[in-house]
Amino acid sequence: MQITAVDGLGAEITGVDIKNLSDAEFRTIQEAFAEHGVIFFRGQDTSEDDHIAFAERFGDININRFFAAHPDYPQIALVAKEADQKDNIGGGWHTDHSYDHEPALGSVLVARELPQSGGDTMFASMYKAYETLPDALKEKVEGRSALHSGKHIFGEGPDSYYNTSDAGSHDDGTNRIGNSDAAEKLTDPEHPIVIKHPLSGKKALYVNPAFTREVVGMDKVESDELLSDLFTHVFTGHGFHHRFKWEPGSIAMWDNRSTWHWALNDYQGQRRIMHRITIEGCPLEA
Fold this sequence. Notes:
Blueprint: E1 2-5, E2 11-14, H1 23-36, E3 38-41, H2 48-56, E4 61-62, E5 77-81, E6 106-113, E7 121-125, H3 126-131, H4 135-141, E8 145-148, H5 151-154, H6 161-164, H7 180-184, E9 190-192, E10 194-196, E11 203-205, E12 212-215, H8 220-235, E13 241-244, E14 251-255, E15 259-263, E16 272-279
Parallel strand pairs: 2-3
Antiparallel strand pairs: 1-2, 3-14, 4-16, 5-16, 6-14, 6-16, 7-13, 7-15, 8-9, 8-12, 10-11
């Protein structure tokens, strides 16, 4: 097995078949995952059962509440876009499940059908985002928490992504996301803006533009300004971005506590089918 760091963040792991990992090989992969935030595999030949077995070595599987499920494997969420569909899933910088009180550890995404061009995924390191944060911003976020929510994405509001995109289960939708009533019942959690990562112990910035709504204890103007400054820092932090180009047999596994990601929607008129398994996490602490 060889682990090679890639530009920006992440590591590509070669010389290994994830279907047949020894305990020692798996521990090495776990360590690379904690250190790099996202790990990539190429040329893997995995069935749905193999995908599930690999994910279960990291922890319990989170059954997604909002994405359409694989018809035979409820553990697998379908991240799909057909050639005649306009909107994709995950088409902006975000981290999964920050709207949960115990955010997911991470996700394992397997490429099943790819467009001839486009459909790459961008990643950003929240370790490096924090490390490179100007001192003045570090002081502003020290000891602070932020409120996260998924209602404006998955909920029933007229402006939610569920209701305004063709991915929803409304009259003009394609049923790729649903269960909007469950989103409305969620209680919005507060998480530290800077967390101590549960696996690596390193500090990571933990806000994201999709699900972070406000800084606790600040008025709206102050909160919006601080979040804008933090988001802009990451948007422009090209030194800690990586663009992953999918190929048949590719697998990416990212840590939701130390990375952002963004599925690029630049393949209109083409089909892209991905299988995602998300792994349960734990409460986050500063």
